[in-house]
Design goal:
Blueprint (H helix, E strand, L loop, with lengths): L16 E6 L4 H12 L4 E8 L3 H11 L3 E4 L18 E4 L1 H7 L7 E4 L7 H9 L3 E4 L2 H11 L8 E3 L2 H10 L7 E8 L9 H4 L4 H4 L9 H9 L1 H14 L6 E5 L5 E7 L4 E5 L5 H9 L22 E2 L6 H12 L3 H17 L5 H13 L9 H23 L1
Parallel strand pairs: 1-2, 1-5, 2-3, 3-4, 5-6, 6-7, 8-9
Antiparallel strand pairs: 8-10, 9-12, 10-11
């Protein structure tokens, strides 16, 4: 099934798109609100969620006039900031309350910017409710692609990741059967060109210093390990129906080419632009239209030359591991993703080394028997078991 609407089949979008922003206090969520701020005549924020940042939730509700709010962390119910929630707002607590925002009748589009496995249920609910799903929660597709993709109607599932937005844009007007391969670009992260010996000594502070993008801490570490790129390979596999081995990771240090598609006749389409996530966010909200730029365009006459390189899967073993999880398929991507989330957090907390992230993912994968994906409850069980295993392996690393 194609993600794209065909001529004559398109349902016009409402003049003012009613938007729910899930994870509005994070990097993607805040940039989404900036796009909504710049296009207030086209976008109306009606629902907002945060994990625990109650003060930011209240601030955003006041600014945008949102009437439906949710805090995923139910322990924050007594947060003093919530005393300032505007009158007339509905406020819920817990993961289910976040999911319920995705199903509201007065929501047209759900921007899923929740980090990690936690956003999976909301993405599933949005598609089930026939909403437009603009998602930055790649784990939803990586872990539950077998469940979500059959629900995705043409024009209703639009990626926000810069790379997948680029591929999506390159494929508009093209036939699925004409895709030869996808060139999935990456900056290479802050450690590009380093040896494993050098990587064994890097710190969380080193890893958080991304050369070209401003992102949240979890995804910035994933970019440093290239785990993020492995997850994106699996994501592209589900989204665009291309095999894992026909998706090639290409290092593009300047982050100007956001990805490319090669077609059967040898032609290649690429999407280029600034390293600013507001562009793919806005495209997901404006599709099939294009609105005025949310940032300063690139002056190509004064740009440094773009360069290309090959991703080193031997040095950055997480990339190879996650791709292998995608080849195995079934519940293995769920296990690998859960292991990475635990290991990533442990590295940021100083509980393990940089290369231990790879070892922990590998150990969890070896201890996991993949089976076909049946439902969200099954994936929740796999996720919980894999996290427990990962924590036990972290304990072994520390001793």
């Amino acid at each position: 099934m194609s993600l794209f609407e065909r001529p004559g089949a398109r349902s016009p979008r409402p003049h003012v798109l009613r938007v729910a922003v899930l994870g509005c206090s994070g990097s993607i969520g805040m940039q989404t609100l900036d796009v909504c701020r710049q296009h207030a005549d086209r976008l109306k924020v009606v629902a907002l969620s945060v994990n625990s940042s109650c003060e930011r939730l209240v601030e955003a509700a006041r600014e945008f006039g949102a009437t439906h709010l949710a805090v995923a962390d139910a322990s924050r119910k007594g947060d003093v900031a919530l005393e300032e929630v505007p009158s007339g707002c509905e406020l819920g607590f817990g993961p289910d309350a976040v999911t319920e925002l995705a199903e509201l009748p007065d929501v047209d589009c759900v921007v899923n910017a929740v980090v990690g496995e936690a956003g999976m249920a909301a993405g599933y609910a949005a598609l089930k409710a026939d909403k437009i799903l603009a998602y930055a929660n790649k784990e939803s597709i990586v872990v539950a692609g077998d469940l979500l993709m059959p629900l995705a109607k043409p024009g209703k599932l639009i990626p926000v990741d810069s790379e997948h937005s680029a591929i999506y844009q390159c494929l508009v007007g093209e036939r699925d059967q004409d895709i030869n391969r996808i060139w999935l670009t990456c900056s290479g992260g802050p450690f590009y060109g380093m040896t494993r010996s050098q990587l064994s000594r890097v710190t969380p502070g080193d890893a958080l210093a991304h050369p070209t993008w401003t992102m949240g801490p979890k995804i910035t570490i994933d970019s440093a390990t290239l785990t993020n790129k492995g997850l994106e390979v699996i994501e592209a596999h589900h989204l665009f129906g291309v095999s894992i081995d026909d998706i090639h990771v290409l290092v593009q240090r300047q982050s100007r080419i956001h990805s490319m598609v090669e077609f059967a006749d040898g032609s290649v389409k690429a999407q280029l632009g600034p390293s600013d996530m507001r562009i793919p966010i806005q495209y997901a909200l404006s599709y099939p239209e294009r609105w005025s730029a949310p940032t300063v365009p690139v002056d190509w006459c004064h740009e440094a030359p773009v360069t290309f390189g090959e991703a080193d899967e031997k040095t950055f073993g997480c990339l190879a591991l996650i791709k292998e999880a995608g080849r195995i398929s079934g519940t293995m991507p769920c296990a690998a993703n859960a292991a990475n989330e635990v290991a990533n957090a442990a590295f940021r907390a100083g509980e393990c080394g940089f290369l231990d992230i790879e070892r922990i993912i590998s150990s969890v994968m070896k201890a996991t028997k993949a089976v076909p994906v049946d439902n969200l409850a099954q994936l929740a069980e796999v996720d919980a078991r894999s996290r427990q295993l990962a924590r036990s392996f972290i304990g072994e690393v520390r001793t």
